[in-house]
Fold tRNA (guanine-N(1)-)-methyltransferase.
Amino acid sequence: MRFDIFTLFPDVFYPYINTSILQRACAGQIVEINIHNIRDWSTDKHHTTDDTPFGGGGGMVMKPDPIFNAVESVAQGKPDCPVVLMTPQGRQLTHSLAEQFSREPRLMILCGRYEGVDERVRRFLVTDEISMGDYVLSGGELPALVLLEAVTRLLPGALGDPDGAFDDSFANGLLEYPHYTRPAAFRDWTVPDELLSGNHQAIALWRRRQSLLRTLQKRPDLLLSAQLSQQDIDILKELASENNLKIPKGILE
């Protein structure tokens, strides 16, 4: 999969891209990541990429021409892949959205700065707008890195464990179960017996119960859209009774 990231601050990306999962994914040719400096497509001697907003007001706005020039130059014409603007006005990134993007052969990511981009960029170039949440950052570089890793780790071969991404929180609609490693006893805190039993069926059942419990405790809203079996619902009833928790309305109907 190819990523093209357009930014005014390319140096932000290289330390993270050259580390861990993204580094291995690049080395294994699972992904190709290209960082483009929007200033390279400005047309004046000062490499201007922003200007004051029409109508007045504080802050600066990213100009449309360097952005269009950059994206269309890299795409060699009109882009035939998603062009994603990282902006707090976008729809929030979810696991499901990351999965959708991971099925694309190519993704272009535009990092906003200052007061944002000229509206013509949104209307006539961008195909999607993605947010990390209901808060504002100084630019889209950190959100772009989040999107980059969220998508990359879903690609076959990107993780050491081929099934690792499918057990993660949100992958199956639930929060992930707890993890333990050596030593089996630490400061009198011991690993659950089920995980030491060697019984794969018992381990799977324990993990499912813990995943359901953790979701019921921390994010019960997720249960409303999760795919739950009758066994899951029975387990939820038992867990709710044992832990004095309420199951969201609509699950038992």
Notes: The longest strand covers residues 83-92. DSSP finds ten helices and nine strands in the chain. The radius of gyration is 23 Å.
